[in-house]
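Design a sequence for this backbone.
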């Protein structure tokens, strides 16, 4: 808190403390003081009791101010959690905003540091409300990353958006109508998504709109956002009365928002809904078109009065498109019931008035829904899946169009359906935050088929185009080509040249296999493999099926450790690459097969090539990171793992980020990555990650949080038993091993012995899992430590030296380094000093650095 603000607090406090408590809220609300000043005054007033004289409170506040000043000091180079502050970007009522380097993921973020002088309850509530916006994923909204607390400072991390604020742009004068309409439209598109997710912004103003180009806005700072719950969410566009949003900053009736952009109902501290955000967009659109505020005033009170009682001057004589003045008038209506009911309706009118010009430069994103089978015959379901998959693939090659991944689409639709309400195509599109959504239906009568497509603009909800094609089932591929061309033409785009279509039966088999492979279950994977094999029998040159078969066989090595499946996987991948050399999926699984064959440098070359070929897929850099760790190159592994996370924040890659940081000695960053991996371990659309429990439990043990580590391992064991997961038998012994280690660290020798015994029994009964040799050796070493007997240690040492009977492939904790660390612990427990020293020398040669030695 600077000296000027200190004086403001002094002056306002002197006035407030002399008043009866019932009158203080009105004084603060009408003071026009900075929110941080009002918050500090309220905090001091809250500490006052009836037995304390005002002069006593004024005396005591000197020390409180000094604490606030000292506590709020931040500087470049300071580290909070895994963020290093680079430079201050700005300062507002809630705190400071800094450009920060994310040390865990190697990217820049904007990090807001909430003011220490804000009350603790307020800071906690703002943090919770900001986290509620984390589910918002839209190109017109700056992504909220996470929040945390470090040394008493609460921080909120967001996407760092380069560009110019709308406020800075307005200082140079009003905008051309086309640009103003495009910017307002982009903000409204973003709000359609946010409101569908149940989040109101409540503080839309030029300062919170960044322009990444002249017609490309990005909405910032959902710090005042309100999570709408219950009936208010369901009736967001109606006159919602169930969610009272009276207080946003304090418990004394101060309202959230910025004067000049706040709706009348906000100013009156009444319930608010989507129409409050509509009002704010109308205000910034008015300002962009006129160069003047819609509700001006020399003082805060003047601006409040203007919003509550005055109508902005008309702009009808300023050469604007016909009808725009009426649109502005409706958006800024004093009564919410006279306003646009939601952002989508407002957007519809802007599109109409702008005659096609009111379109922001945001990415053309498209989601394709599975086509509905009107006959209701489950045997025809493959047709709806297959058409959607094929159109997704065809349209994915259209320049200027970005497809939402199919698993994300399926997950979004399932999530909405689970709420029990009827789900329309536009609802799914708005939940996904995409600009376009393609839905359709299939009607089959014997050999004849009628396919209908409907292309929706999700922001407005308008049906942009429809196509109906009749034909024979044997002509399905020709029909699909016509449909993809029609969709591209509707978007003023051109389709890529179509490939030779496979036979229809092959098409059916492939799509049945795809549906099965998404489940992650071991039995489903076997069925999927059979479908893909049948596809190849019908069409030996089916590239997609060849690539999938390569994946199926490569993955089976995880739980069979049969080297023959690696040869088969590599053969399928090479067949696919012979026909399509740039197929990144086939190249990735060829690299995987080579990796497990210990051809490490060749494998890394394949993964690096696949990473370059497909700049969106997260799998190639993930495997490149794993291989780099296996080779002993943690810095290189970290860069690849970060690339994978940047493409899709999935749990498996975050675990590799954690291992890489741990190998490099970055303990704080490693812990963050493991905790994040655990939090997103079952993210929609991605293969569930049962190994996240192991990584987090191990990390908590490193940090001495043994009770939490034990609970995490136990929850992991409970969860893995409920999953039909391909990696279940691979994960269960790792969790038992970690549970034993934690119990050992707690001094609970019976529990440690029981966990180790169960792990050994599991591995002797099912010894074919990947890395099982390392896990067995580590467990036997743990047994030796638990009971103080040499026999398990000696068996572990022989097993590790001879490497016979079990698999010793690298797999996270299944590595030479972890095994050597456990053997060293056991040797020390048995007081075998010469063996301890020999093992320690070997571990250092294997990459055991001093900081890692302290950790392990």
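Sequence:
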């Amino acid at each position: 808190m600077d000296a000027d603000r200190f004086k403001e607090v002094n002056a306002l406090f002197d006035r407030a403390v002399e008043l009866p408590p019932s009158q203080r809220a009105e004084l603060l609300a009408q003071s026009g003081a900075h929110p941080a000043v009002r918050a500090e005054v309220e905090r001091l007033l809250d500490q006052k009791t009836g037995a304390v004289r005002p002069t006593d409170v004024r005396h005591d506040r000197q020390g409180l101010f000094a604490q606030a000043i000292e506590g709020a000091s931040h500087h470049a180079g300071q580290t909070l959690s895994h963020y290093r502050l680079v430079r201050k970007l700005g300062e507002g009522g809630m705190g400071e905003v800094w450009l920060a380097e994310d040390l865990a993921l190697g990217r820049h973020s904007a990090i807001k540091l909430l003011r220490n002088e804000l009350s603790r309850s307020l800071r906690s509530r703002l943090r919770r409300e900001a986290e509620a916006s984390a589910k918002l994923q839209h190109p017109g909204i700056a992504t909220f990353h996470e929040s945390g607390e470090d040394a008493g400072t609460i921080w909120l991390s967001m996407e760092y958006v380069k560009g110019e604020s709308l406020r800075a742009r307005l200082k140079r004068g009003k905008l051309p109508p086309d640009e103003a309409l495009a910017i307002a439209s982009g903000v409204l598109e973003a709000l359609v998504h946010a409101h569908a997710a149940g989040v109101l912004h409540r503080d839309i103003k030029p300062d919170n709109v960044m322009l990444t180009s002249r017609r490309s806005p990005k909405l910032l700072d959902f710090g005042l956002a309100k999570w709408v719950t219950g009936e208010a969410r369901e009736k967001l566009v109606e006159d919602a009365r169930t969610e009272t949003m009276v207080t946003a900053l304090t418990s004394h009736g101060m309202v959230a928002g910025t004067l000049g952009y706040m709706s009348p109902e906000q100013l009156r501290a009444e319930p608010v809904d989507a129409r409050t955000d509509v009002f704010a967009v109308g205000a910034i659109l008015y300002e962009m078109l006129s160069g003047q505020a819609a509700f001006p005033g020399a003082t805060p009170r003047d601006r409040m009065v203007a919003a509550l009682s005055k109508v902005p001057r008309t702009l009808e004589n300023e050469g604007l498109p016909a009808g725009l003045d009426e649109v502005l008038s409706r958006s800024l209506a004093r009564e919410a019931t006279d306003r646009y009911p939601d952002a989508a309706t407002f957007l519809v009118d802007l599109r109409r008035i702008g005659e096609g010009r009111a379109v922001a430069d945001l990415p053309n994103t498209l989601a394709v829904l599975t086509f509905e089978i009107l006959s209701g015959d489950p045997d025809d379901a493959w047709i709806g899946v297959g058409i959607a998959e094929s159109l997704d693939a065809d349209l994915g090659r259209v320049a200027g169009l970005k497809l939402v991944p199919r698993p994300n689409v399926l997950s979004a639709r399932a999530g909405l359906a689970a709420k029990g309400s009827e789900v329309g195509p536009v609802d799914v599109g708005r939940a996904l935050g995409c600009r376009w959504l393609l839905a359709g239906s299939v009607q089959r009568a014997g050999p004849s088929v009628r396919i209908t497509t409907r292309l929706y603009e999700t922001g407005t909800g308008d049906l942009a185009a429809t196509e109906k094609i009749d034909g024979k089932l044997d002509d399905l591929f020709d029909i699909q080509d016509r449909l993809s061309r029609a969709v591209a033409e509707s978007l003023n785009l051109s389709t890529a040249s179509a490939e030779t279509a496979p036979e229809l039966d092959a098409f059916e088999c492939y799509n049945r296999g795809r549906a099965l492979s998404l489940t992650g279950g071991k039995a489903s994977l076997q069925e999927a493999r059979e479908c893909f094999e049948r596809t190849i029998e019908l069409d030996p040159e089916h590239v997609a099926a060849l690539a999938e078969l390569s994946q199926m066989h490569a993955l089976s090595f995880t739980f069979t450790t049969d080297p023959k499946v690696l040869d088969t996987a590599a053969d399928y991948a090479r067949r696919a690459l012979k026909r399509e050399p740039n197929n990144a999926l086939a190249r990735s699984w060829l690299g995987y097969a080579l990796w497990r064959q210990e051809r490490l440098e060749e494998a890394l070359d394949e993964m690096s090539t696949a990473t370059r070929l497909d700049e969106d897929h997260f799998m190639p850099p993930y495997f490149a990171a794993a291989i780099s760790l296996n080779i002993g190159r943690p810095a290189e592994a970290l860069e690849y793992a970060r690339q994978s996370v940047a493409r899709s924040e999935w749990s498996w890659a975050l675990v590799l980020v954690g291992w890489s940081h741990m190998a490099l000695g970055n303990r704080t960053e490693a812990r963050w990555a493991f905790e994040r991996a655990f939090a997103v371990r079952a993210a929609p659309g991605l293969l569930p990650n049962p190994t996240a429990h192991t990584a987090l439990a191990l990390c908590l043990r490193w940090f001495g949080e043994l009770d939490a580590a034990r609970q995490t391992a136990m929850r992991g064991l409970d969860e893995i038993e409920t999953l039909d997961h391909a990696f279940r038998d691979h994960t269960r012994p790792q969790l038992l091993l970690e549970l034993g280690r934690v119990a050992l660290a707690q001094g609970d020798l019976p529990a440690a012995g029981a966990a180790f015994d169960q792990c050994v029994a599991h591995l002797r009964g099912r010894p074919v899992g990947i890395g099982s040799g390392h896990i067995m050796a580590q467990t036997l070493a743990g047994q030796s430590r638990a009971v103080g007997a040499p026999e398990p240690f000696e068996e572990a040492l022989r097993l590790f030296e001879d490497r016979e009977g079990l698999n010793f492939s690298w797999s996270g904790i299944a590595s030479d380094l972890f095994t050597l660390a456990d053997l060293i612990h056991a040797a020390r427990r048995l007081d075998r000093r010469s063996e301890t020293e020999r093992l320690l020398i070997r571990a250092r040669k294997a990459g055991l650095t001093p900081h890692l030695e302290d950790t392990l």
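The CA atoms of residues 105 and 642 lie 5 Å apart.
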